[in-house]
Amino acid sequence: MNYVETKSALEAKRAQIASIREEMRAIQVDVEPQAVEDYELCGWEGPVRLSQLFGDKPDLILIHNMGRGCSSCTMWADGFNGVYDHLASRAAFVVSSPDPVEVQREFAKGRGWRFPMVSHAGTNFALDMGYRRADASHGGYQPGVSAFRKEGDRILRLSDTELGPMDDFCVYYHLMEMIPGGDAEFTPKFS
């Protein structure tokens, strides 16, 4: 196909994707939220309840990060750092990992991360949310994102999805798609 034909074909596919996204948003509107417990996690200033992570916002976006040992999770977090102010203007935003607070602090400082972090080490939080599996690497932890809403004393999970190559949350892959052949063998590096 020549350039104009290729562009036209890709625009048609992008229109299909936009239509599917609209359908997904319509499905999400009708979600029956999942009630979750008010987990006690470890914040940088000491124990913190999930309910406290909302601050003054009704909604919370929580990233399930595998920790400093995962270069992919690090790349995603680098991207979230860039849009943190935009995210935090609408909902509370926090990154959770199994790393101890001291490790999180040091790693976040070295990367220039500005978002809040909590450790879920020693809790069932990742397991209960579906982001820890016995059959996986990195201690069984899996990357993902959950959206929560607080209604009075109740915490409700509205949605969640895994993070990984070609997901909707990492711009790198979508920009590389624009180059024929892209970067199919790409593995993020820490620097």
Descriptive notes:
The protein has 5 helices and 8 strands. Strands 1-8-7-4-5-6-2-3 form an 8-stranded mixed sheet. A hairpin with a 2-residue loop joins strand 7 and strand 8. The protein has a single domain, classed as Glutaredoxin. It has helices spanning 3-29, 71-88, 101-111, 125-129, 171-176, and strands spanning 34-36, 40-43, 46-49, 59-64, 92-97, 117-119, 144-151, 154-162.
Write the layout of secondary structure elements.
Blueprint: H1 3-29, E1 34-36, E2 40-43, E3 46-49, E4 59-64, H2 71-88, E5 92-97, H3 101-111, E6 117-119, H4 125-129, E7 144-151, E8 154-162, H5 171-176
- At CATH level 2, the architecture is 3-Layer(aba) Sandwich
Q: Going across the major beta sheet, what is the strand order? A: 1-8-7-4-5-6-2-3
Total individual domains: 1
Reading the helices and strands in chain order gives HEEEEHEHEHEEH
Mind summarizing the main beta sheet? Answer: 8 strands, mixed
Q: Could you say which overall geometry the principal axes of the C-alpha atoms support?
A: globular
Q: What portion of residues is helical?
A: 25-40%
- According to CATH, what is the topology? Glutaredoxin
Head-to-tail CA distance between termini: 38 Å
Radius of gyration equals 18 Å
Report the total helices. Answer: 5
Highest CATH level, the class: Alpha Beta
Regions with pLDDT < 50 over 5+ consecutive residues?
Answer: none
Compute the average pLDDT. Answer: 94
Counting helices, strands and paired strands, the structural category is alpha+beta
CATH level 4 superfamily: Glutaredoxin
Number of strands: 8
Strand fraction: 15-25%
